[in-house]
Design goal:
Layout lengths: L14 H13 L4 H31 L1
Amino acid sequence: MTIEMDAMLCLKLESELKDFLEEMADSKDMSLSAYCRYVLGIGLDELYRRNVNMRKLEKQFIK
């Protein structure tokens, strides 16, 4: 699968966080970009799961 890099997302963050992300990426033998995509993917998956669970709870209360 080919990933097309056609967009840019800039994050302004503390230098300590950048250093931490670079260290984690290096420890996993990944580029910083790939590691950030990985971390963001995990976060987005968790948000999706929480939203699904909230909708299930809302349906229970509406009944």
